[in-house]
Amino acid sequence: MQKIFESFDATIQDLDDGENEQFIDQVEHYLQSLPLDKQKEIKEKLNINDLTSRTIRNLMLTQGSAAMLAIIVEVMGFAAFTTLTSTIAAITGFFGITLSFSSYIFLTSAFSILTGPIGLIAIAAGGGVMLKKQNDKVSKMFVPIGVVQLLLPIMMGEPEGRHYEAFIEAWMVPYEKQKAIQREIHKLKDTYKEYEHQLSTYRELKYKAFLEENKEEQNIEQQMAQMARFLEDIPENEKSARYLELSSGMKPILLYKAKLEKKITLNDANKGMFNAVKNLVANTSLKSKISDCDKLYERVAKQRVDETIEMKPPCLKKYWEAIAVINAQIKSCKQQQQECSKKISEAEKTMVTLKETISTKENDLKRHQKRWYGLKDVK
User: Are 5 and 65 in contact (CB under 8 A)?
Assistant: First the structure.
């Protein structure tokens, strides 16, 4: 890092007046934005009274930019590193180098490590032993260091450079595994969306079949009501035994209903306070029985119409033929609803399995990226 800081001095000497003023203004703006206690500490370490462009210019002339930047890092710690990324972007621009956003992140992390005690120990030891330890924290720290070491020859303009084939080859293995897992997740999510679309389609078809069934049920009731009006037109020799039985059973129901209605009329004719209370209770019971009679009559009358459809009398052919067509349509609607229900159930089960598989793959990806720190930022 000292080498990088010192390289700033050589670079700044080649700047024209306008570029030099711009650099000084950036440093002044940053220093003025710091808390007062940090400004005070920097001034004490730099042995100056004010943090102005004039004093910064004098420092650069007398001590060089390396000393000034090193003291800023020492005082500010991590807070300085995030701001230094923008400075690095500007400085590398002076070299004619364009770095990726990930490089700035790695460089910032490297400043944090190399200026701290752990970085100094690691550098002193060569880093070889610690790199072998399977410790997430250590791995995370040394990835940025490795990247900075790779970038140093370029930033410092070393003519021979270095060969990175082994580094790239080593990282291609986890990178390709990451891409493979991501492709699997993408494919699974696409399949999940397809099943979502199918599920929506099946539910819509089922609902349409349900509405169509209700419509046909109303049509069949209308046809049966019209047929009931012409049952008396059926010749006696065409009436089945069941039809005659149902017809004979309907008459007693009507007679019993008439009897109940007559009792209500007689009760209403009795006047007086006592009779009024008694008749109210009695008539309530009679009306309930009349209601039961109406229900029984409707049920038997429907059974007689059903029997008429089975008889298929020629005189009512247009009705029972129309009813047969409607019944076929109702049956078709019911079958369609059953098929849709089966498809919906199958789709929902498959979607549950897909969701679990996606979750498992996403967890695998997180573990893989956690193991290879920085991998998720490689696109």
Answer: yes
Do residues 153 and 4 touch, judged by C-beta distance below 8 A? no
Among residues 229, 225, 234, 220, the alpha carbon closest in space to that of 323 is found at 220
Distances (CA, A) of 12 to 9, 60, 72, 315, 368: 5, 9, 18, 112, 43
pLDDT at 103 over 80: no
Instruction: Note the pLDDT tens digit of each residue in 183-219.
Output: 999 999 999 999 999 999 999 999 999 999 999 999 9
| Integer Cα distance of 193 and 187 in angstroms | 10
> How many of the other CB atoms lie within 10 Å of CB of 168?
10
Give Cβ neighbours of residue 334 (< 8 Å, ≥ 6 apart).
209, 213
Q: What percent of the chain has pLDDT over 70?
A: 67
Full-model pTM: 0.52
The pLDDT of residue 12 is 59
Write out pLDDT tens, residues 312-339.
999 999 999 999 999 999 999 999 999 9
**Residue written as token pair 């770095």:** 99
